[in-house]
Amino acid sequence: MRKFDRHQGLVAPMDRANVDTDLIIPKQFLKSIKRTGFGPNLFDELRYLDEGYPGQDVATRPLNPDFVLNQPRYQGASVLLARRNFGCGSSREHAPWALEDFGFRVIIAPSFADIFFNNAFKNGLLLITFDEATVDRLFQEAEAEEGYRLDVDLESQQVITPSGETLTFEVDAFRKQCLLEGLDDIGLTLKDADAIDDFEKRHRQARPWLFRQAG
Amino acid sequence: MAGQTLYDKLWSRHLVKERDDGTALIYIDRHLLHEVTSPQAFEGLRLAGRKPWRLDTNLATPDHNVPTTLKERSEGNAGIVDPVSRIQVETLDDNCTSFGIEEFRINDARQGIVHVVGPEQGATQPGMTVVCGDSHTATHGAFGALAHGIGTSEVEHVLATQCLIQRKMKNMQVRVEGELGLGVTAKDIVLAVIGKIGTAGGTGYAIEFAGSAIRDLSMEGRMTICNMAIEAGARVGLVAVDETTVEYLRRRPFAPSEEYWDAAVADWRELVSDDDAPFDKIVELDAAAIEPQVTWGTSPEMVAGVGAQVPDPAAAGDETVQRGVSRALEYMGLHAGQQITDIQLDKVFIGSCTNSRIEDLREAAKVAEGRKVADSIKLAMVVPGSGLVKRQAEEEGLDKIFLEAGFEWREPGCSMCLAMNADKLGTGEHCASTSNRNFEGRQGYGGRTHLVSPAMAAAAAIAGHFVDVRDFGAEGAANDDSQVQEA
Ligand code: SF4
């Protein structure tokens, strides 16, 4: 997994609650058997005025000029500012893959859906939760000031605004360590292979029917 | 010591190890796979030179991309017209073959939507941990199993280690007491719950559905409810084990053999929350007060009783919510104050992992029997959840009822629930759908989805617009009232 320690980036404010995974990456793009290449279709139905399909050359498609990521001032954004319950809906990891592939490294919102939250961290994205009032204020600042950038430091768990204000955020210790070190959590879990083996033996003894199959 | 909730019990039964950082390793008993979220996981295993930890826990079936028309299906994978879809299904077949994982392939009678197949086979059992790269894995919690959706990285993690790294969730109880009105179903209960707590109301919680109205439900009804726990933000939905659970599982192919049956049942009976178990949050609903529900917006929480009107954005909560409602009405082509029953429909979809089991089809057939789909409906389709559901429905003659009424009778799969195959809505079309998500574009680009129960969907197909299934008989179709009253 890609490491994350500190990131400074342009902020794009997406002013919409309950952004679901179908909006983040519509289903027709889930047919890919790869992990990469979803960026051009991130927010496909919002970004383009026509219907997208896999394998298309997106350069030829009409852009929706009203959509935030199409506005010139937000080109190159890598910090997404969002509203409550971002990422609700399906478990598709294609959603964080698309966000990451597009170039986002950090998403800030008042709340995230559980499965999306989990999936995002496994792909090197840092998700930060601030209360509604703080997020509101960041929205106002980002919209008011062109070129608004945030400096996000994971080690010290701080976001620094252009005016020098420091906002502290919470992050789970395990996720933080995985991000800082770019750890493969399967490798980590396999260090506990003996404990898993032991558990499995006891489990099988106590409930042998769980280990039987039809036929 | 205070008692334990069902969730607490399931958690401690599967706890391999607690780590210093507050996470825990949880052992997984059943891993279901489908073609959309697994290819990258198998690829990851291959790249790292890893093997599945335990083969007999995995069970796979293709469901999202499979065509549902008989002609295409008869050709097997070759009948999948879209080459990208076909490759995805073939990749699942290849991966299952090369890793030695049991799979019900496209034309196996046992193939179907993964959340219909698991329970139907008895592969989902009380006391298990069940995961799948699919958020509607919450469905399996209806059996008193700890079941939730996972992402593709976690699919790979489970394949490689038989475990997941988890944090314990909080406990919520949703208690539905009393008796449902005639024509009101499990789907209406869960939509009413989501309407009440919102799509983020369950975030961070495992929700246990309890109360007499839940106890009175069949396993099919309980699955419908747990299925949509995720639409309330909860990864996990649960119902305690009782006689209904045990009877459902008896003699299913993957159920415990004769040798272990009694021991298993004794073990399962412990899978209830203790009387004094503390819940972090309790939500109560009166079953008798629940009307048939219809969603009018682009989020499952945008729901109302069939007798209600489309709401006015100005009256809807804070500014963010108001904007959301306005945008939803614009997308849906509806206006504030419009009667729900005035919404004209173009298509009707009866299917999905929420409502494609035999009981759902029976409920819809009761309403459709002896009636005709309205001329204004371009397509009304019934898509059984599995090959075995389809077979049973045909044995009961339900296919004939649907066909005579003008519904199409299709082959099993996810179909128009998310329109990854050829079944989809056109731009601007309104659909009465028994599925679980009404997100923008979910059923097709620009499509407008209204979530309802199977009986409400069937009634809407006949009328051409939403009607209250409870007084549908009076609307003057071929049948008398008593017929519909039972529905
Ligand atoms: S029926 Fe719909 S919700 Fe269920 S698994 Fe298939 S696509 Fe997902």
Characterise the protein shown here.
- Chain B: It catalyses: (2R,3S)-3-isopropylmalate = (2S)-2-isopropylmalate.
- Chain B: Its EC number is 4.2.1.33.
- Chain B: InterPro entries: 3-IsopropMal_deHydase_lsu, Acnase/IPM_dHydase_lsu_aba_1/3, Acoase/IPM_deHydtase_lsu_aba, Aconitase_4Fe-4S_BS, Aconitase_4Fe-4S_dom, IPM_dehydratase_rel_enz, IPMI_cat.
- Chain B: Keywords: 4Fe-4S, Amino-acid biosynthesis, Branched-chain amino acid biosynthesis, Iron, Iron-sulfur, Leucine biosynthesis, Lyase, Metal-binding.
- The complex is a heterodimer of chains A (215) and B (487).
- By secondary structure, chain A is α/β, with parallel strands linked by helices.
- Chain A contains eight helices and seven strands.
- Chain A has helices at residues 21-24, 44-47, 94-102, 114-121, 132-144, 173-181, 185-190, 193-206; strands at residues 6-13, 79-81, 106-109, 126-129, 149-153, 158-160, 166-168.
- The longest helix of chain A has 14 residues, at 193-206.
- The N and C termini of chain A lie far apart (40 Å).
- Chain B is α/β, with parallel strands linked by helices.
- Helices cover 32% and strands 16% of the residues of chain B.
- Chain B has helices at 6-13, 39-48, 70-74, 83-99, 114-121, 152-161, 186-197, 212-215, 219-227, 243-249, 258-268, 319-332, 358-368, 387-395, 398-405, 454-463, 481-485; strands at residues 15-18, 24-27, 30-33, 58-60, 102-103, 129-132, 146-149, 163-166, 170-177, 205-210, 236-238, 281-286, 293-295, 303-305, 347-350, 379-382, 408-409, 430-433, 448-451.
- Chain B has a five-stranded parallel sheet. In chain B, strands 17-16-15-18-19 form a five-stranded parallel sheet.
- Chain B starts with 5 loop residues before the first helix and ends with a helix.
- At the A-B interface, α4, α6, α7 and α8 of A face α2, α4, α6, α11 and α12 of B.
- Bound molecules: iron/sulfur cluster.
- The site of iron/sulfur cluster (SF4) has 13 residues of chain B, from loops.
- Residues 63-64, 113, 115, 134, 136, 352-353, 414, 417-418, 435-436 of chain B line the site of iron/sulfur cluster.
